From TrEMBL:
Name of the protein: DegT/DnrJ/EryC1/StrS family aminotransferase
Keywords: Aminotransferase, Pyridoxal phosphate, Transferase
GO molecular function annotations of the record: transaminase activity
InterPro entries linked to this entry: DegT/StrS_aminotransferase, PyrdxlP-dep_Trfase, PyrdxlP-dep_Trfase_major
A Pfam family assignment: DegT_DnrJ_EryC1
Classification via Gene3D superfamilies: Type I PLP-dependent aspartate aminotransferase-like (Major domain) (3.40.640.10)
Coiled-coil regions listed in the entry: none
UniProt source species: Collimonas rhizosphaerae
Record family assignment: Belongs to the DegT/DnrJ/EryC1 family.
């Protein structure tokens, strides 16, 4: 960077990263691929939504169970979020659920989430988009390695946050087969300054009110290093996930429920349902006493946040509410030892069998 005197503004490392990612996604599909880096996935979703040019205030579907960034991006893009339900088994917003929600609300777009890294079927969503005219953006923030982009007309946004499988500290990128979407996102990430001679606005003039969402060369350097070790780390993640899950299934398999779908290639979290709200509270207490961190991922559900976030439309979400009662994220990190897995499994076993907390027994 010092030699090139290039620290940001679409420097050589950002270009190299985009090119390597493009090749990676292109090797999984027959259509042309475009990759545009951004400073984080939240802005990536916001700018991708902006590039759809929907009328201000258009209703946009989001699943009730997702990270808050999904809904803040919709609001900041100038649209009205419509909170929809999820499938009770794969915990995803599906085309069937979306079809009913569109009918009920007239939604013009949907931000469809690859929840906990479980992939969405881009070809099915492309069909849905063609049939309904509802524009689809996939929030695959946590799904790099699990989510591919098989349909050219469905843009997919990935995160490179430190907690993701391709970490750069902060960062994100948009993958699509539609050059115009990627060009618009790139332009909007650079304040909205027009970069194309034939756009009807002179090059260098603002063509829209964009923002600064460029990925720096520093972050691109870290992302390139992450990419170099990605395959090896993905194998370690898979092995850890499988070992961990097998131990839990052996100790208390009959009461636990797992998200259904293809086995994750590069898992970064470890989520499951404990069968009851009481078991979850019990496990949280047991873990707290032993210094084991747990997370109620994506809770509260989107519509249960403060009304100050702005106007939102809420559809009935009984399945999301059900999943939210006993969903828990357990510790998951590279080099987690068998002893640490056993420690967590013992706590889960005690919690689901409603054994009183350690504190109460000692
Ligand atoms: C589903 C989902 N969407 C969006 C984001 C936001 O990504 P970023 O931190 O890169 O803005 C996350 C981050 O965890 C996420 O899980």
């Amino acid at each position: 960077m010092d030699e090139a005197r290039h620290y940001t503004n679409f420097g050589p490392l950002v270009r190299e990263l985009e090119s390597r990612l493009r090749q990676r996604f292109a090797s999984h599909t027959e259509h042309q691929m475009y990759v545009t880096t951004v400073s984080n996935a939240t802005l990536g979703i916001e700018l991708t939504l902006n590039s759809l040019n929907l009328p201000a205030g258009s209703p946009v579907l989001v699943p009730a169970l997702t990270f808050v960034a999904t809904i803040t991006a919709v609001i900041r893009a100038g649209y009205v979020p419509v909170v929809a339900d999820i499938d009770p088994d794969n915990w995803l917003l599906t085309p069937e659920i979306a079809a009913a929600a569109v009918k009920a609300t007239g939604a013009r777009a949907a931000v469809v989430v690859a929840t906990f890294g479980y992939p969405q079927d881009t070809k099915r969503w492309s069909e849905f988009q063609k049939q309904t005219g509802v524009r689809i953006v996939i929030d695959a923030a946590a799904a790099f390695g699990n989510q591919w982009v098989d349909a050219a007309d469905v843009p997919v946004v990935f995160s490179m946050h430190a907690t993701k499988s391709l970490p750069a500290g902060e960062g994100g990128f948009i993958v699509s087969g539609d050059a115009s979407i990627n060009m618009l996102v790139c332009q909007k990430s650079n304040f909205g300054i027009n970069l194309t001679p034939d756009a009807g606005v002179p090059v260098g003039y603002l063509s829209s009110a964009g923002t600064n969402a460029k990925l720096s060369e520093f972050h691109a350097a870290v992302a390139l290093a992450s990419l170099d070790s990605w395959d090896e780390q993905a194998i370690q993640r898979q092995r850890l996930y499988q070992r961990y899950r097998a131990v839990l299934e052996k100790t208390c398999g009959e009461v636990l429920t797992w998200q259904t779908g293809p086995a994750p290639t590069a898992p970064t979290s470890f989520c499951l349902r404990l069968g009851s709200e009481a078991a979850r509270t019990n496990l949280e207490t047991l873990c707290q006493e032993q210094g084991i961190a747990t997370r109620r991922w994506y809770q509260p559900l989107l519509h249960r946040h403060a009304p100050e976030i702005g106007k939102i439309v809420v559809l009935p979400v009984p399945d999301a509410e059900k999943v939210a009662t006993d969903l828990i994220g357990l510790p998951f990190f590279l080099n987690m030892s068998d002893t640490q897995i056993e420690l967590v499994a013992t706590a889960v076993q005690r919690a689901v069998s409603h054994t009183p907390s350690l504190h109460q027994t000692t």
